[in-house]
Design brief:
This protein is an alpha+beta fold. Helix content is 38%, strand content 41%. It contains three helices and four strands. The chain has a four-stranded antiparallel sheet with strand order 2-3-1-4. α1 runs antiparallel to α3. The longest helix has 18 residues. The protein starts with a strand and ends with a strand.
């Protein structure tokens, strides 16, 4: 399995809209991408502007496919101006 973690630092004035938009993005990914197995959206309890995603795909090719979907491209272009900083990391999850 291929895991992706993303930490967003969202501008204050967009925090609520970002949360709604990223939750919708997660739902679309899970409903429309057969190789997307998990898509968790988490908010820092002490800082609502800090949002963490944990995504799990069959493999890196499935994640690459995710980045090409219309719903991801729409999400990315919508929230780009709302973000102060974004950190993306990828991981191989060991089964066992």
């Amino acid at each position: 399995m291929f895991a992706v973690t993303v930490t967003f630092h969202v501008k204050e004035e967009f925090a609520e809209r970002f949360a709604e938009t990223v939750i919708s993005q997660a739902r679309h990914s899970l409903e429309n991408e057969i190789h997307c197995h998990q898509f968790d959206v988490c908010t820092d309890p002490s800082d609502h502007k800090r949002v963490f995603l944990y995504e799990l795909y069959t493999d890196s090719a499935a994640f690459d496919g995710h980045l090409k979907t219309a719903h991801f491209k729409d999400f990315d272009s919508t929230v780009n101006a709302w973000i102060q900083k974004k950190d993306v990391n990828t991981w191989y999850r060991h089964e066992g």
